[in-house]
Amino acid sequence: MARPAILTVDDDAPVSAAIARDLRARYGADHRILRASSGAEALELVARLLLKGQPLALVAADQRMPGLTGIEVLARVRADVPDAKLLLLTAYADTDVAIAAINDIGLDHYLLKPWDPPDENLYPVIDDLLDDWHNAHPDHTNDVRVVGDRWSEGSHTVKTFLANNHVPYVWLDVERDQEGARLRDLAGARPEDLPLVLVPDGETLRRPSTVAIASALGLRTRAERDLYDLCIVGGGPAGLAAAVYAASEGLSTVVVEHEAPGGQAGQSAAIENYLGFPRGLSGADLAQRAITQARRFGAEMVLARDVVALEPRGPVRAVRLRGIESREGIEPDGAAVPGGLDGVDDFTDIEARSVVLATGVSYRRLDAAGLDPLVGRGVHYGASAGQAAACTGEEVYVVGAANSAGQAALNLARFAKRVTLVVRGTSLEAGMSRYLVERIRADDRIRVLCGTQVVAAAGDGHLERLTLADRALGTTTEVDAAWLFVFIGAAPRTDWLGAEVARDAHGFVVTGHDLVSGPYAGGWALGRPPFALETSLPGVFAAGDVRFDSMKRVASAVGEGSMSVYFVHRYLATI
User: Fold this and answer.
1) Residue 303 pLDDT exceeds 50
2) How far, in Å, CA of 379 to CA of 487, rounded?
3) Is residue 382 within 8 Å of residue 484, measured between CB atoms?
4) Which domain covers residue 527, as residue numbers?
5) Based on the domain organization, do 96 and 150 belong to the same domain?
6) Model's pTM, two decimal places?
7) Which of 27, 153, 412, 553 has its CA 20 to 30 A from that of 530?
8) Is residue 339 part of a domain?
9) What is the number of structural domains in the chain?
10) What is the Cα Rg of the chain in Å?
11) Coil, strand, or helix at residue 85?
């Protein structure tokens, strides 16, 4: 990929020279630094870049200029280069205009002048913007290649694992891409071998497990220590917040995540009401920032492992992990296939003095005839931001009425022929934030069907049709559908916990005061009262969506994860 450009726009020659100098000093090795002295000149430069097919990463424009203002220039750039990062340089008097531009043109950031010293005021902002741009525009030269069938559940699992772990990959459909068919034939792969995962300078994995993929990519699948101060089960917002605070305060910390850090929030295309991000940020971006923080403080991440048991062993707690570790899969004819999904269960334990349960929740299964065989074949529970492109030009249905469903509908509508939001209740307003409701109603690519539910699904090898029921009229309608994304309910991931950890009738973990009063009293055995967030098993805490009576929001999960570390310290002082 050619070096991406950074364009500065300022009519004040000394200021223009100063910002170009500062940018060149920091970013000149990997980026082209371009200058324009007016809005018109800037737009000419942008047009030249587009004609040459050269990438534009960031435009930094002064607000007050003769002719076109900075916001007018950036609005034109947004229309021509939608993925470029936009930075407005402004005086204090123009901050209201800058804030309005966040909503009006999708301004990414505004910076008050002067920005000296740049190490404190300029570079941190530019670093964040460029990191975001480069994450969205990876260099595909050395990418992993995934070869498979678009309607295969195995292909979907592999692509989701790679995307959620921020591993760039190239998807090659054997039915649509000549290169995909060529690689399949070169590997001598049969349909049951797919998907293939081709790792640069590595082996070709056939129908691999996530553990096999993680191992081939050098991702950690085993803990390094024999004993930790804290083991965090789950890498969503609560778990990552706990990891950041625990590791930063000197606790030896390990996070175990069965798929990829981020949880349900990590799949969100946009989280717009998270404090401190006025333009919002994607769930993947939030997760990646948290992972970087946690690792910088020394927290370990163990991926692609399912937690299957929690066992008290005197003063320590043992977390048992399961993963398909075998490098040999067994094909129906008995032939061995490297890296196959069919392997030998591999169990290992992590011992820790304390545990935080942050396993979050899963979307509940939709009860509709014919749906289960189509899961992974057009039917999906949740949707990562990257899945939207696969729906280009097709009919997409989304079931749900909470914020996650609304964000998914808006993201999918960018590519789909049409998105239909199926809502069981009588209105969107009951469960969705107002700003999302307004955006959905203003988007003519999204249709909302209230008082409706999906009652059946059908298709030959993949989803092709849905049956919708009108709850008020009692009538049904069959519709064509290529994709169905389900965002309903919240089922806690606690089936693996034993009787030592008290849960409510739905499986949510009971903690703190609720263990000694109310309907779940009686589960606490020690003489001292339980710490807030502590479960009925002393030294084991719960945070985030998995906890009984918690607020199901990203910010509250982060708060509980952070707070849990305070109580971990108090518990460790007692043993």
Assistant:
1) yes
2) 11
3) no
4) 227-326+344-361+491-573
5) no
6) 0.78
7) 553
8) no
9) 4
10) 26
11) strand
